[in-house]
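Here is the promised in-class demo. Please do not try to memorize the tokens; focus on the logic of going from shape to residues.
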């Protein structure tokens, strides 16, 4: 049974601007309170039980990304802009607990979206410190949400799961976590491969928005078939089904996320609350004076298949394209190389340049590139001699006598003329009396 808790957390000064700057206490449900301390660390929630024991709960990693990293992407720089016409005050508004409970209840979701102190702290983070990031999420959702919705709808999953990449990657298709999870849906290497995503030195399909979205939908469906509860599914997506099963066993068989909560890994305790908060803020951003970034629809694109290795720089130089655009349209190719020689591979380009690529294919392939690998190399004599010297300690030798030739010597020692020439660095069949030859 969970003990009475207090949640300590620093909020941006715009959140509760009516409170004293040093400390404020606001009653929440029952006997619990949320304590807002402006001197605390804003990257985690500190839980203090009634005995005074402290425990920290991490926010998901994507909730710590700064705005500059999000806006450095090509798609963001090219197609998103601040809406200077927005008349909302850049000032958060706080509401009574009952308002948040009512709004969460009224969202058109099949997944349970309950309210508690930890959910409140995640909502506060999004609507205060992360206001600009939420503005970015709302703008970038025009690029990615249609892809997420199609994949989820195909597998008949709740569409509110489309906000999972908000807390997973902050809608950054090339995001890589501290532990190596990659892409919008933050697949670990083994899980990505298990769901059909190709990962090697040149290709990482975890970074492909379309392929990764369909893989994520299959994975979420499979997790639901295991647990039958969406909160447990979300938690398992974060920490793995094994950790959820451990928490269930430690709790005495409970299968309610909020009852196994104390037995979960530290970040997972903040994960479901963050997901609920993301759903809230993506629906009620206006009520918190957050203006979406203005977005242009990206240029229409299409793909063309290539059957040999080609570097982005070859395409950019011959077709007159910005290499940053090619990278943005093809995030799965991690070293700017399309490995068509391994298997026919697609390259995505603006639709107006597809015919240009086809017409200039020969010139593209002929352009200077660093993708070519030698098929065969000659071994220099110096290398042969060095190798021979290193292995000479275990060799058998023959002193050439007058009348000897390589053929006779080879037959005598059960070897071949070509081996004798190789072992002794001979360019031809000429040998001389007194010469020492390695014969084994």
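The designed amino acids, position by position:
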């Amino acid at each position: 049974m969970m003990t009475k808790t207090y949640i300590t957390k620093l909020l941006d000064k715009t959140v509760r601007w009516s409170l004293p700057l040093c400390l404020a206490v606001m009653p929440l449900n029952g006997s619990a309170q949320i304590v807002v301390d402006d001197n605390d660390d804003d990257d985690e929630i500190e839980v203090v039980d009634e005995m005074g024991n402290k425990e920290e709960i991490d926010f998901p990693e994507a909730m710590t990304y700064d705005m500059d990293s999000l806006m450095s992407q090509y798609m963001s720089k090219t197609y998103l802009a601040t809406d200077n016409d927005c008349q909302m005050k850049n000032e958060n508004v706080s509401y009574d607990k009952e308002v948040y409970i009512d709004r969460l209840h009224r969202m058109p979701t099949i997944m349970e979206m309950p309210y508690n102190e930890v959910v409140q702290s995640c909502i506060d983070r999004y609507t205060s410190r992360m206001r600009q990031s939420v503005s970015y999420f709302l703008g970038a959702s025009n690029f990615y949400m249609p892809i997420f919705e199609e994949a989820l709808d195909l597998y008949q999953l709740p569409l509110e799961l489309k906000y999972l990449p908000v807390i997973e990657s902050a809608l950054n298709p090339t995001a890589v976590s501290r532990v190596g999870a990659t892409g919008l849906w933050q697949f670990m290497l083994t899980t990505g491969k298990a769901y059909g995503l190709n990962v090697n030195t040149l290709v990482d399909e975890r970074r492909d928005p379309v392929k990764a979205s369909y893989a994520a939908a299959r994975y979420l469906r499979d997790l639901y078939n295991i647990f039958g509860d969406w909160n447990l599914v979300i938690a398992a997506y974060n920490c793995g089904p094994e950790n959820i099963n451990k928490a269930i066993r430690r709790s005495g068989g409970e299968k309610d996320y909020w009852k196994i909560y104390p037995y979960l890994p530290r970040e997972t305790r903040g994960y479901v609350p963050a997901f609920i908060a993301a759903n809230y803020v993506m629906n009620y951003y206006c009520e918190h004076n957050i203006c979406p970034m203005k977005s242009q629809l990206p240029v229409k694109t299409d793909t063309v298949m290539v059957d040999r290795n080609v570097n982005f720089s070859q395409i950019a130089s011959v077709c007159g394209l910005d290499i940053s655009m090619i990278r943005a349209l093809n995030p799965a190719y991690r070293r700017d190389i399309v490995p068509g020689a391994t298997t026919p591979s697609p390259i995505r380009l603006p639709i107006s340049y597809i015919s240009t690529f086809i017409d200039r294919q020969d010139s593209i392939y002929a352009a200077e590139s660093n993708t070519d690998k030698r098929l065969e190399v000659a071994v220099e004599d110096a290398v042969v001699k060095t190798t021979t010297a290193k292995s000479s300690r275990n060799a058998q030798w023959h002193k050439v006598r007058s009348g000897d030739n390589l053929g006779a010597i080879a037959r005598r020692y059960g070897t071949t003329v070509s081996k004798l020439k190789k072992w002794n660095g001979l360019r031809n069949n000429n040998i001389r009396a007194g010469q020492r030859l390695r014969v084994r």
